[in-house]
Amino acid sequence: xxxAGFMARNALRNKRRSFLTIASVALSLFLLCTLRxxxxxxxxxxxxxxxxxxVAVRHKVSIANVLPAKQRDLIKRVAGVASVMPLTxxxxxxxDEKHFFSRFAVDPAEAxxxxxxxxxxxxxxxxxxxxxxxCVVGIKTMERFHFKMGxxxxxxxxxxxxxxxxxxxxxxxxxxxxxxxxxxxxxxxEASGNRGVVGCWWxxxxxxxxxxxxxxxxxxxxxxxxxxVLAESERAFQMGFVSMLGNVTLLIxxxxxxxxxxxFLVTASTMAMAIRERFREIAILKAFGFRSSDLAGLxxxxxxxxxxxxxxxxxxxxxxxxxxxxxxxxxNGFFPIFEVTPGIMAQGMGxxxxxxxxxxLVPAWNALRLSVVDGLKILD
Amino acid sequence: MAIPLKYNLRNLLVRWRTSxxxxxxxxxxxxxxxxxxxxxxxxxxxxxxxxxxxxLLMLRKGSTADSNSQIGRMQVDRxxxxxxxxxxxxxxxxxxxxxxxxxSLARASSQGEANVLVRGLEPAxxxxxxxxxxVEGRMFRGGLREVICSxxxxxxxxxxQLGRSFRAGKNQFKVVGVFDAGxxxxxxxxxxxxxxxxxxxxxxxxxxxxxxxxxEEAAARLKKTIEDDRQLTSRIIREPDYFKEQTMTAGxxxxxxDFLSWIMSIGAxxxxxxxxxxxxxxxxxEVGTLRVLGFRRREILISFLLESLFLGLIGGVIGCLLxxxxxxxxxxxxNLQTFSEVAFQFRVTPDLLIKGMVFSMFMGVAGGFxxxxxxxxxxxxxxxxxx
Amino acid sequence: xxxxxxxTKLYRQGDIDVTAxxxxxxxxxxxxxxxxxxxxxxxxxxxxxxMAGIDRPTSGQCLFRGVDVAQLSETALAEWRSRHIGFIFxxxxxxxxxxxxxxxxxxxxxxxxxxxxxxxxxEFALExxxxxxxxxxxxxxxxxxQEQRVAIARAIVTDPELVVADEPTGNxxxxxxxxxxxxxxxxxxxxxxxxxxxxxxxxxxxxxxRQLHLxxxxxxxxxxxxxxxxxxx
Lengths: 380, 387, 233
Hints:
- The complex is a heterotrimer.
- Chain A is built from 16 helices and eleven strands.
- By secondary structure, chain A is α+β, with helices and mostly antiparallel strands.
- In chain A, the strands form two sheets. In chain A, strands 6-7-5-8-4-3-10-1-11 form a nine-stranded mixed beta sheet, sandwiched between helices. A two-stranded antiparallel ribbon of chain A has the order 2-9.
- In chain A, a hairpin with an 8-residue loop joins strand 6 and strand 7.
- Chain B folds into two domains: 182 residues, no CATH class; 171 residues, no CATH class.
- Chain B contains 13 helices and twelve strands.
- In chain B, the strands form two sheets. In chain B, strands 1, 2, 3, 4, 5, 6, 7, 8, 9 and 10 form a ten-stranded mixed beta sheet that branches. Chain B has a two-stranded antiparallel ribbon with strand order 11-12.
- By secondary structure, chain C is α/β, with parallel strands linked by helices.
- Helices cover 32% and strands 28% of the residues of chain C.
- Chain C has seven helices and ten strands.
- The chains are: A alpha+beta, B alpha+beta, C alpha/beta.
- Chains in contact: A-B, A-C.
């Protein structure tokens, strides 16, 4: 039996309150971790090392405007360009909107060269190049719909005024998004009446160092042409989508702030209640000769213990839950990955610690100043 | 006889520090709830109030929005002179073939860009949309790279204010007028002449056709004729219905709001439980005394339930008051269907406030029930003896 | 052992100063069992609190073996209490979540004693109060008299020179009160403990070797008792 053991037992004395305190801290931290993760996924989309060498080229007016196919050869001639291919958002509807996953038309010969992080077997790649109506589907989508090789997928056009009927000839693993369907751009061209247009150009640089120069050259090349372009790094292109979300980020940020504040209020009042109830005992311990500073220290420790327990439950719970729950399919691919990173968890634990510390400051200070005579007079 | 409410109110006042913390906890949860819901409500409102019941919209079959619909010149000509379409004063059909282009513009507030919907329309398009009125400047003229912008858009994109101009592609466009479309979805658009739009943005196709049939009977007939025509491969939808389809953009926000509110409310219920357990723990001797005086278990239960309900009620009022100033604040996000910016305003409706109050009272009662039952079920003698 | 010199204590109650003690001077010898009597508000508890080092006088000195307790810092005072004073309260003040043995052990946590030595002392103290068979009982499993006896064991387990008791029989029935007082008398007579006790029960006061009456903060009369009531325990 030590003094610390005594305090630990005291912390658990009112089991109900300890449970409620830990649970409310855990809930708040769970929410906080979820919001932070969501915000991070939206404002800071994951990227791979390979991404650094890639350049996205879109129409200057907006991403919804198409580019002429004839630009390809011009881009190809820019020094340092290792590969150019069209990357066109087809979209379309598979069965209905609930069966959503991304669908792009690409150049089969270049696609897996550019997206090196997406691993595909040579046989699948060759089949994709050979068969014009073939498509390659990410492993996650394959599993989600129980697709098999050779299955046919019919897509109804929404953005594009044409339907396509595809056959699965391959699958890939790896990369950030394992849900995408790629199909042959030539097939799209034919189905849509050979209008000679593409959505975007995707460019692979030979070295990371050449990327800024390639971007500058492509932008200059088409200035004042009928289809002025905006070339930017793949990363910048992704961030463009974040900007489109508008005030959502601000909204989530401020809600996180409100949650933090609420959490602080509730925890602080609970701690104050718990400690005020024990003033009499603290007075007795003081009468025996226990030092005020030691007792205050124990109060702080007790509060930290409760808050940290809540923190571990909340952050750990968020981590576990988003590992088990398929967020990508639940949000129709809006969040392809939803990972509570170690950084976010560490942040959460830091917040829990700060919470435990600050919420007991006032009660600890009161206990510290409490005179033995006054403490003994408290009857309840 | 019921225990006087005064007893509970005084108790809340005596331990005001705990009461205030709990109240604020509930208040903030309600505020967040109302805030997010008002965001969804505002977004929904802007779509639901758009369009004229008499108008029909023609889109390419399979397209989900006018921004990805394509209609050829030939098709437009065929529709334009169909029988049953209402006439303008000058005798021409009340029909506007329109072209929609997304233009990427810089935001006024933060860095970054967003797609804004530019609509090329015919003069009839203005007559077909009586809810939009020109409030400043003048109407655009064709061939001069002139546009008019909605006032709401001007608040979010400074280049859309009267007298300013913006670049899109090779061209510089001048804002010569500002219109107000009564907070409808058109308040997120830039308007210009359709033929000019098609030529400067190099559009072979139109996007959609908006027209007004002479009457209901003509509307039904036109819809059938057009949709049955295989060459047209088009669909006809009432203008308001088209915008109602787009309210799905509000879906994720509402989902997010519900998710937040539910989890936060559990936290708030815990807080109320903590408070009520503590207050009852302290007053258990009083409870014994009340019982000796002749109050029954049920009255004790009701008394404590009322106390926690009251906590919830005040918290709800504070929460609603906190969220109220948001009403009318302009904001914007992406329309998931057209991929363009939609500008709208938070709408804190009376309906939402009532929902917020019900929510707060629910939290109060849910948090107070277990503790109140403990108080009511403690045997008299034990309650009297406990220190 | 204790010398009180011109001890005065003023309280501020709202806007008015209340005199709890008015220049009280007193000498207490080693081995005395002093019963402090007087009506409520006479200042007897305040006097006890000052002697025990949990309250400070407004003026005057409280000398314990020549050391002025009132001059010690808060931290030094805490350590001084743990060495020299044992407390007995009217409401026992046992910690409800701890067993009898653990409650008695509590003051020993401030010493450098090893666990085995602490255990020995606890058992000895509980044996002294006749509760050796109640080591593992929680306070709520004991009667009031037993609780107060555990509290007495807790007060003496550190072997303090002075035991202060504030209305030790105030919450007990006549029989238990008799038991507890007998125990205190034994501590005084057999073990030589100096005891200062506040009480307003004249029967309890009979057990003391000296009775002191306080009224309105002033000493009234001081009676030494030739034959205090006999200890029966």
